[in-house]
Model the fold of this input.
Amino acid sequence: MSKFRKSLQAVLWAAIGLGGRRADAEQRADGGNLVLILGLALVLVLALIGGLIGLARLAAA
Done:
């Protein structure tokens, strides 16, 4: 599995809180690059905020 995919999997598992056992979570995080994981997490947070803003504007219209 590529490092990008491992990093993406680690970020998504952490975002939804279904990490499973602690050892599994550490193994997923160790498989990726820290900068890549932080970048993916930032993109995920910005997408979530953008989606919420868009939903609020749609509801207000």
The chain is about 80% helix and 0% strand. The mean pLDDT is 80. The chain has one domain: 3-60.
